[in-house]
Fold these 2 entries.
Entry 1:
Amino acid sequence: MYNDKNHTTPVSSPMISIGPRVRKSPYFDATMRWGAKAFTIYNHMYMATHYGDPVAEYWRLVNDVTLWDVSCQRQIVISGRDARHFMEYLTPRDLSDCPTNRCLYVLLTDENGGIVNDAVLMHMRENEFWLSPGDGDVVLWAQGIASETGMDVQIVEGDICPLQLQGPKAPHVAYKLFGDAALDMGYYHVMETELNGLKLAVSRTGWSGELGYELYLEDHIHGNALWEYIMEAGEEFNIAPAAPNTIRSIEGALLSYFSDIRREDNPYTFGLGRLVNLDKKAEFLGREALRKIHAEGNHRRLVGIEIDGDPISHNESFWPVLPARGMSGDKVGHVSRCVWSPRLEKNIGFANLPAELTPTGTRLNIWTPDGQTGAVVVKAPWFPAEKEIPPGIGN
C-alpha cells in the first residue's frame, strides 16, 4: 500500500498573524470593515480568502455581483524604447499584433521552457506594458533578465492597485460607474479613465469565469474611497465583498500558479500550445527547449477529474495519484486543487498525470488525508467562461 509519511491529516487550519513584515493592501481596511474573516499571504501581501461562507460567496458570484481585493497582483510596469522587444523576450506568445488598449493572457517561460508565471499583459501605450502576474516575485525575475540583455527598458512595481468586479450583474455596476464606455469595451480590452477624480485603468478581464472587470487604481491612498464608491453603486444589484473563488475557478478551468502551474511544467502540459509561437520573429527565452519538448511530445498533462466520496471543502496539499488497480506501485501524479461544486453536486479538480492516464474516462486512485478514494478523468471546463455582455443594460 502507498504510504507517505509527510502526507498527514491536518488537525486544523492554523491562524495567520497580522504584522508589519507583510504588506497590507490599500483595500485592507475596507475588507475588514466589510467582514473579511480569513486571509492568506500572496505576493508578500495579505489577501482575504473569505467573508464567512465561501459557498454563499460562490452563489453571489454566479447570480449577482461581487467585489474582490486583488491588489496582491503586484503590477509590473515595463517601459522604455525597447519595452516591446523585452516583452517579446519574456514570452513565447507573439505580441506583434497586440495594439495599445488591448490585453493578452501570456505565459512567461525560462531557458528550459518551464513556466515562471502566467499573467495578463496590458499594452497601455506605445512603449509601456503592464504585467498582472500570479503569485511569485516576477518583478525581480524580469529585472534580472533585463540586466543581462542591455535593452533600454525600465521595470518597476507600479503604484497600481487592482480590484475585481465579477458576476453576471457586473456590467450593470460598471455602467453606473463609467457609462457606455464600460459596455462598449471588448473582451480583453483596457481603457484609462477617471472616477470621481480618481485615475483608473479598467479592463474586461477577471479570474471568475463570469462577466467581470478589473479596476486598477493608480494611487494607493484612495483605496478606501474607491471601494466605497463601487459598493454604493452596486447596492441595488445585491453586491457583496468576496474573495477569489476556488469553486468557480475550478469549474471554469482557470489555473492558479504554484497550485496548478509549477516551474517544472511547460505550456504543453496545460494544452496551451496556442500561446507558443516557436517561429515568431522576435527572440524569446526557452525557444530551443520548447522546440525539443514539442518535437518529442509532452509527457505530462493537467486534466479535469471528478472525485468519489463526500463533499471536499478543499485540499491543503497535493494529493498523490496512484494506478487505478489497487494501491500498489509508485505515485504517478498529484491532485493540484479540488473542491465540491454545489451546482454539479460533485467533487471536481485537476490532476497532473502522465499522458497515458489522461484520456477521458480513465479511472484513478487518489490518496487523501482520510485514505483512498476513486476518481475519473473528465473534460474541463465544466462551465466555460462568460464573455458576452447581454443587450439592454442602461436602457
Entry 2:
Amino acid sequence: MSIDIYLEPFDISTIQLNIDKDPNRIYNIIRNYHKLGSYQNENGKIEELQDFDIALIGVPEDRSSLKNKGAKDAPDNIRKYFYSLYSHWNNLKIVDLGNIKNGNTIEDTYFALKEVVEHLLENNVISIILGGPQDLTYANYLAYEKFNKIINITSIDSVFDLGHHDDEINTHSWLSKIILHKPNYLFNFTNIGYQSYLVNKESIQLMKELYFDAYRLGEMRSDLEYTEPPIRNADIVSFDIASIRQSDAPGCYYSGPNGFSGEEACAMTRYAGLNDKLTSIGFYGLNPGLDNRGQTSFLTAQMIWYFIDGFMNRVNDKPILNSDDYIKFTVNIDGADGIIFLKSKKTSRWWIVLKPDNIKENRYRPHQFIPCTYDDYKEALKNNIPDKWWKAQQRMM
C-alpha cells in the first residue's frame, strides 16, 4: 500500500533554522519523505520504509481542539527545535514522513492517520505523532485493529477525557470512543498525573469499575520512578502537553499552575523509549500561538529527543517465565495461590506474573507479565494482594 495520498512532505524551507553545519545535528541525520513511498539519503540512494526504526508524522489539525485553536501549527514548530538538536547515537534510523493532509472532515483525518500508522506497524517502524489535539489518539488506536491485537494505552494527562457517550469526538471525549468502539482491542488504560479537582467523582468511579489504572499527580511526583511500570506496560503512549505545569509549558490553553515539570516530562518520555513493547507515541495539545518564545515547542522537541535516547538504549528486556535472565520469586498470600514475581538481571526491573491457568483467553496471554516495582513485591510479602495483579485478573474475566 502507498501512503503517499495521505501525506504532504515537510518543506524545511518554511522554517528558519539558526544552526551550524555540524554533521551531528538531527537536521543532518533525519531523512525526509521523498515520493512514491521511498526516502532519499544524502548520497541520493533510495531507502525503503522498512530501513527505518522511527518515523515522525505531523498532524496539522485543530477542528476538535475546542478552546485550543491553533494546535494545527504545532508539528512544524516542534520540528524547528527538534531538527536543531544534536544526535548522540550511532546508526539512528529516523525518517520524517511530513504532515497528514487534512480531510474534509475530522473523521477523514482520523482515517488517514490510522492508515499511515497501520502501514508503519506492518513495517516495524515506531510512530512519533506530532499533534494536533489529543483525540488523534483514537485514530492511533484504530491502526491496531487490523492486527487483532489486544493492547494497552497509557495517557499522561491531567484529566480522563471521558466526555459523555453522546458527545461528538473531541480532545476531551476520545477515551469514551475507544471504550465503546466495537470490536474492542483495549486491555488496559492507564492515566498518569490526573488532578482530582479537575475530575468529577463519577469519572473516577468509572475508571475503578473498568479496572483501569489511574494515578494522581502528587502520587507520581513523590517518586517519578513510579511512572516507569505503567509506561513500560503501554503499546501506545499519549502525552497531553496540558499535563505539564503552565510555567514550564505555557503553549496550551488547558495548561494550569500544577502539573509535571519539564524535566519530569523528559524522564517519562525516556521511559517510553526504553519500553520494548511500545510501538507508537503521540504529543498533543501544543498551541504555538499561546507559547512564550517557543518554550513549549522547544520542550516538546526535547521530550522527543529523550524518547529516542530511550529507544536507542533498549536492551530487549521482555520477560520469560523460566529464563535464566530473570530471578523468580513466589509469594504466598491469603486469597491468592502463590503470586510470582520476576526481576530482570539486566535492568533490575520487576514484573508480576499471571499464571497460565489464570488467563481465560489466548488473546490475553501477551499481558501475562505486568510491570511493577520492588515496592509491590514488598507489599506482597506483607500479605497484601498487589492491586495491579488483581485488576488484571478482573479484566480477564
